[in-house]
Specification:
By secondary structure, this protein is of the alpha/beta class. The chain has 2 domains: 15-127 and 277-287, Aldehyde Oxidoreductase, domain 3, CATH 3.90.1170; 132-272, Aldolase class I (TIM Barrel, Alpha-Beta Barrel), CATH 3.20.20.70. It is 40% helix and 20% strand. It has 10 helices and 13 strands. It has helices at residues 15-30, 61-71, 100-130, 149-158, 176-182, 185-195, 208-217, 229-239, 256-261, 271-274; strands at 3-4, 45-52, 56-57, 76-79, 85-87, 91-99, 137-139, 172-174, 201-205, 221-225, 244-248, 266-268, 281-287. It has a 6-stranded parallel β-sheet with strand order 7-12-11-10-9-8. Strand 11 (244-248), helix 9 (256-261) and strand 12 (266-268) form a beta-alpha-beta unit. Helix 1 (15-30) packs across helix 3 (100-130). The two termini are 34 Å apart. The relative contact order is 0.16.
Length: 296
């Protein structure tokens, strides 16, 4: 029996984003057509069942559905779980009915989306659980699979995490190279404020002196990069309540709980989206009369 960990499903990316993802993925798999599925009668109908073999948090239903509906809009898909829901091993996730060729042709692409996004959501949920009760929020990064950024960031939300900036356009993050090019931290902040006053402005600092400069410059958030425990405590004591604090670098499941206990607002974790362990899914198709699909 599956159980839900939250009351609502995170908002999906725009429909054209999902359609674009699916179109690209199907085109690289199908090419000029599925030469194996063509051995089935064009009008053959079948039904299928999708099983999750792992304990997992599910994410990616819309991409899964779109793969099948791109090949046959009339395929019926009945889900037993929603995105963001945690399931036990051997949970039936959904059942499908429709054109047999479409079912077998879309299968691999649909599973690729669902196993990858569910893997992202599942990993995120583990990090979120590790900081439970601290008030610290888990953030993703831009270390996403090329072409799947919005999909993976959606999956992070399904796992209970939060999104950092989507790209280079919707927030400012000033790092060491930006500071050097601008002639100093203060100069970089002033230039950024002048050009993009509406955007969140964050500065990455590597020591307490740079933290003081960031506070004096009036930034919105400070990223504490590779701060050890003692220096982190001093940074929190100095800046808590004055500016949002984010920890980045050297964070894993073994260390994240202790970091969160020190009182930071955010911890960003690249591993949520770059270290993807796909969820184990099983997809079985049978002809409408109940017989197994012919061996192709």
């Amino acid at each position: 029996m599956s159980s839900t960990d939250r009351d609502s499903t995170p908002a999906l990316p725009a429909g054209d984003v999902i359609a674009r993802d699916v179109e690209h993925a199907l085109s690289e798999d199908l090419g000029s057509g599925d030469a194996t599925a063509d051995l089935l009668p064009a009008d053959a109908h079948a039904h299928a069942q999708l099983l999750c073999r792992d304990e997992a948090v599910i994410a990616g239903r819309a991409w899964f559905d779109a793969c099948f509906h791109r090949l046959d809009p009339d395929i019926a898909i009945a889900w037993t779980v929603r995105d963001g829901e945690r399931v036990a091993p051997d949970t039936v996730l959904c059942r499908l009915q429709g054109n047999a060729r479409a079912l077998v042709s879309a299968e691999r692409t649909a599973l690729n989306f669902l196993q990858t996004l569910s893997g992202t959501a599942t990993r995120t949920a583990r990090y979120v659980a590790a900081v439970a009760g601290t008030g610290t929020r888990i953030l993703d990064t831009r270390k996403t699979l090329p072409g799947l950024r919005l999909a993976q960031k959606y999956a992070v939300r399904c796992g209970g995490g939060h999104n950092h900036r989507i790209g280079l356009y919707d927030a400012i993050l000033i790092k060491e190279n930006h500071i050097a090019a601008a002639g100093g931290l203060r100069e970089a902040v002033l230039a950024a404020r002048a050009r993009h006053p509406q955007l969140l402005l964050e500065v990455e600092v590597e020591n307490l002196d740079e933290l003081e400069q960031a506070l004096a410059a009036g930034v919105d958030r400070v990223m504490l990069d590779e701060f050890g425990p003692d220096m982190l405590d001093r940074a929190v004591a100095r800046a808590k309540g004055k500016v949002e604090l984010e920890v980045s670098g050297g964070v894993d499941l073994d260390s994240i709980g202790a970091i969160a206990q020190r009182g930071v607002d955010y911890i960003s974790v690249g591993a949520l989206t770059k270290h993807v362990h796909a969820v184990d899914l099983s997809f079985r198709v049978h002809m409408r009369d109940g017989s197994p699909l012919p061996h192709l």
